[in-house]
## 1
Amino acid sequence: MAAAGPLQGVRVLDFGWAWAGPYGCTLLAFLGAEVIKIEGQKRPDYSRRMSMTTGQTFDNLDQSTVFNDMNLNKESLAVDLSNPKGVTMVKRLVGLSDVVMGNMRPGVMDRLGLGYDDLRRLKPDIIMCWSSAAGSTGPYRGHVGYAPTFALLGGISHLTRYPDSPPTLLSGSIDAASGTTFALAALLALNHRLRTGRGQFVDVSSTEAIAVFSGHAVLEYALNHRVQGPLGNEDEAMAPHNVYPCQDDDTWITIAVATDQEWRALVGALGGPGWAQDPRFAASQGRWLHRQELDRHLEAWTRQRTDHEAMALLQAAGVAAVPSFNNRQIYEDPHTQARGVFTKMRHPAIGERIVMRPPWLLSDTPAAITAPAPLLGQHTAHILRDLLGLTEPAIAELKAEGVVYDPTPPLPD
Amino acid sequence: MADALARGADALEGIKVLELGSLVAAPYCAKLLADMGAEVVKVEPPAGDPARARGPFFKDLPDPETSALYLYLNTNKRGITLNLEVASGRALLQELLAQVDVFIEDTPPGRLEEWGLPLAHLRQLYPGLIVTSITPFGRTGPYRRYRAYDINLFHGGGQGFMVRNDALGKRPPLTGGGYLAEFDGGLSAAVATLGALYHQGLTGLGQHLDCSIQEAVMALERATLTRYPNEVAGSATTPLSAGSRGRSGMSGTQPCKDGWVTIAALEEHQWAGLMKLIGAPPGSLRPTPELDELLRAWLAAHTMDEIYHGAEALSVPAGRLHTSKDLLASAQLQAREFFQSIDHPRTGALPYPTAGYRMSATPWRARRPAPLLGQHNTEVYCGWLQRSQVELTRLADAGAI
């Protein structure tokens, strides 16, 4: 086993569902935490069945590639929480855990006898970190939502559109950003507990996790009573600043120039064309005012080149220029390959998969993918025996009563 | 109040952070720590963080002290000026690093080495120091020295292509609004930093974190971006962009009487709720062109608020458009005190967004507005580094600060 991540020794119980909850726990698992996913067979995580983001559906609860991507490095305890004995098992696990996380609708855990007040009686320094669409307080506390609703309610959709197009919903990234915020909140509480010995309850709102990205727009409204409008690919001050078509069909390059120095570098990289000597383009304000004309000149240049040629020429001169990569390009790109962003792993029910490693390189306690997402109930026996100390007959009895489950036998090939 | 100020009332109380960051990603990472009580000192060049030159400005008058972007990203920090172009400035940086737990920096790879402060040397000098490097493409690989602004990183991370959904047709891939790639880069780096800080709290040992903004943007689309190598590499050549969104005609945003809404009736009971809401005939179990038409007509006859509240009352996930003005007016955000007023000497009091989380024992607190340029030079150089006022003047005269 390689060196483990910085959260080695931290145990997390994950009651997550869909993306925002599970992905937050996965980030902690990337950092070395032991994450146990608590799932029932009656209502398993719906990422095991379908994905709104990718449009895929899966026939078998263990064959969801999307579930795999969002639940790497975890263990799975399959337990029926509608059975009091199931709740008792979970309560015993809480006593052995550091953090309880999830994103079911506020109130669900309280009804199960697993609310924060219940949990801290079991373990006084427990951290409970709960995420929901609108948060656990306020008039909309019971509301339900997914990434598209967070994007629209959180204000980012309004800023992500052409002035003449509908607001866009971005994509699953909105859920994952909410999940990243969820991980951040848990880590803040863990750091606090480390120095004070105290746990706490943390209430995450997915809508607010997105609304913080509009902070400057909110302040602009407060300052000037003006609603910041959608800019498409333009910028309020920079020009050129756009996405330009390249030689091959549906290939594009982004170019952004902020300073006079960068402008001179751009002109030099283009070979000092006559149009660029126009005094209207000499200063940033003039470039911005005449940005559409500027864009036409640049487009004539980018259309003669591939996106990679344009990037290499412009970057060599010190100009910020990067293609708008599609899935294939980003996978085949020499930079992502050199940094080992994509790695292979084997999933027992899916087979060999290419997955994306954690987005940070830690020098001394590496974050890493150490295991695929668990089959439903894959670690039930291990957890009951090795963590809770149950005997084999006791485990067999719980299974026979339908309180806990082993994984479904794999499908024959 | 006494309770709130008691020891341990801040999640990161006692943690000292030095930020050498510009624009959005690194300053946002440091702000996330400052908001939770870390003592963050922001180092700016004498000309200031370039975010000060970005608008929007108070009354639209360019002023390095009233940039909304700068004010938002730098609340709760102290600020000093330091000229790292001169040797005496670089010596001060090294002295400051001796004082802190975390160094958040966004210098281009190679710059610290040019300054005579290579990472290996810093780590040897200060074994407990966490160095969080936040750069566009990370510190290794062929693009490590490439320049990139937010637009370049959003598209370079593969998300621009995904935002272009059916509604945009063949228009160019679209950029996430308002520095989204940089925010995601800063947020991701803060997660890694807090992981390393936990380890440092247990062991006393620091480390170096290489955080690529491109990878932070990519990570959020890990399930979509990996479809290419897993599903079509070697066979089909058509790259997959983002997938469909939900069921049939409800994908994307839909126009309604007074704006835009989205409905995500993904599960069967949610679909049933939606059918009830729009008065669909019994037995409408799955989408049909007729039901899509009925839905569109129903949306066109109702307002954003009617649709949002009507849907949520039936447990149907729904959203309505929120602009910055709407966010400020949201009953939910107001009830949760999502905005807190912070006074600033040049703009007066403004409502600032707080955070996506409420911590019961260590609540978000406004401690101070964003610093004026060099506002805390005396406090930091004379306090942390024990320089006298005379020495401070000499440093200023020598162009070091």
## 2
Amino acid sequence: MDVKQIIASRVAKELSDGDVVNLGIGLPTMVADFIPPEIEIVLQSENGIMGMGAAAEAGKEDVDVVNAGAQYVTINPGGMFFDSATSFGIIRGGHVDATVLGALEVDEKGNLANWIIPGKMVPGMGGAMDLVVGAKKVIVAMTHTQKGKPKILKECTLPYTAIGVVDMIITEMGVMELDESGVTLTELHPDFTVEDVRAATEASFKVSENLKPMNI
Amino acid sequence: MIDKIKSAAEAVAPIGDGSVVMVGGFMACGTPEILIDALVEKGSKDLTIICNDAGVPGRGVGKLLSNGQIKTLYASHVGLNPEVAARMNTDNPDDKLDCKLIPQGTLAERIRAGGNGLGGFLTPTGVGTIVAEGKQVIRIEGRDYLLELPLNADFALIRGTKTDTFGNTIYNGTTRTFNPMMATAADYVIVGTCEIVDVGGVDPNEVVTSGIFVDAIVGGEKPWTLSK
């Protein structure tokens, strides 16, 4: 497995049968490939789908059905379409069990920055601000560092997407859980030591007494 | 019954310079391209466009941007149209785009509020971020919310899948997006639709937008495709 597959595979283990889940564009989308067959989750796509299915087979696309990344997808039996106000009512209303998304920076207070690098990249927040505020569980799935620089910081330097919302960070090095007491390393990938993680992390974190090998 | 069927050029004729125009769709899926093309042809300038995103170059509102018709853009995401960043950062004041980024759920709800007679709404989205700058924060039962105000427009460009001659419209799949809310929030609503049928030709159980909201109907909208 490559780094992205390791991360996506571990995220998939966090999801439970019946969960309503929104997966962000990019790496988070890969999580769907790692859901075991006995677990049935309901994927929500913020452009207006509940019960989103797999990518559409070439030549068999329904041209009116795309995901939030504008790729042709399918809808599962039992699914439905809705407008954007309804979609974000579902999201803000706490009806999404988990959202998985990438980050530019996360800090030890659970603050998230993932929508703008002032003066350099201004893509906009899209649905991210609503998703992280509304979803019951916010899972950040990302590489641990960016070109060797830590992304898990004492304090975000970029403008926030939201404050105090991140519940879990899953990287190729392991799993960190966040709560009022701060950040705790709960799982470690066997290729790395706790010292490796400390060297790649600016935020202070505790190591769980029950530190486990990363469940991938 | 008022005859609402028009050509695209006739339908967009009232959209003058400086108009505020809502455009449905998400990454151009659900955007009425025939109406955009007619507006490009008409060449109205200094438009304020309210749309989920900036489309992509050559698609959706991206065409209006490339043609230099947009002065102000309200959107939630502009990352897939590199022209937006170039126009936001230009030193030429005539070319400069005023881009107001709004969280997608807040944008949808502001339009819904505009069309539904609400003076605004309270949302937890954006609290503690730069989105909150200049906005009233109201604490209710221990949680902070931002007061967000309604959005309305002079015109809305809506994309339908099937529309009857009264304007009753249904939307297939993910083309629905912002269209139903925008149809309620603008003074003059134009539907670009794939198929026009007689009244009675759409099942009332399936109608999403009532004809009462629709002022003009333009046929000939093509099925949405990724390639183009």
